[in-house]
């Protein structure tokens, strides 16, 4: 059995205008894990993210922090191919932040 350790969602991360995405109330969304992949590139981030995404439940998401735009594009395409949801994306300085769910 997997022990679920949640981190609290940063309310500023979810745009209040996007509170309902795909018919789901995002205010009840739980961040299952936060992955800082800023030092990873190429296939590394996808490999790390893949195992975490497989553990997600419907009301959960993973917050991914990336260090370059090329990796962000790779992850975005991978999310679409896997049939996952890119709930939100933002940029803070030179970091790209994605919120990914099922």
Automatic annotation (TrEMBL):
<dbReference type="Pfam" id="PF01206">
    <property type="entry name" value="TusA"/>
</dbReference>
<dbReference type="InterPro" id="IPR001455">
    <property type="entry name" value="TusA-like"/>
</dbReference>
<comment type="similarity">
    <text>Belongs to the sulfur carrier protein TusA family.</text>
</comment>
<dbReference type="InterPro" id="IPR036868">
    <property type="entry name" value="TusA-like_sf"/>
</dbReference>
<feature type="domain" description="UPF0033">
    <location>
        <begin position="33"/>
        <end position="102"/>
    </location>
</feature>
<protein>
    <recommendedName>
        <fullName>UPF0033 domain-containing protein</fullName>
    </recommendedName>
</protein>
């Amino acid at each position: 059995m997997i022990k679920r350790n949640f981190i609290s969602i940063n309310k500023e991360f979810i745009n209040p205008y996007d509170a309902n995405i795909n018919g789901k109330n995002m205010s009840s969304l739980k961040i299952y894990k936060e992955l800082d992949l800023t030092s990873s590139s190429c296939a590394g981030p996808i490999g790390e993210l893949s195992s975490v995404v497989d553990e997600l439940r419907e009301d959960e998401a993973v917050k991914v922090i990336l260090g370059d735009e090329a990796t962000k594009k790779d992850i975005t395409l991978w999310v679409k191919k896997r049939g996952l949801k890119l709930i939100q994306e933002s940029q803070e300085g030179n970091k790209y932040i994605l919120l990914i769910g099922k």
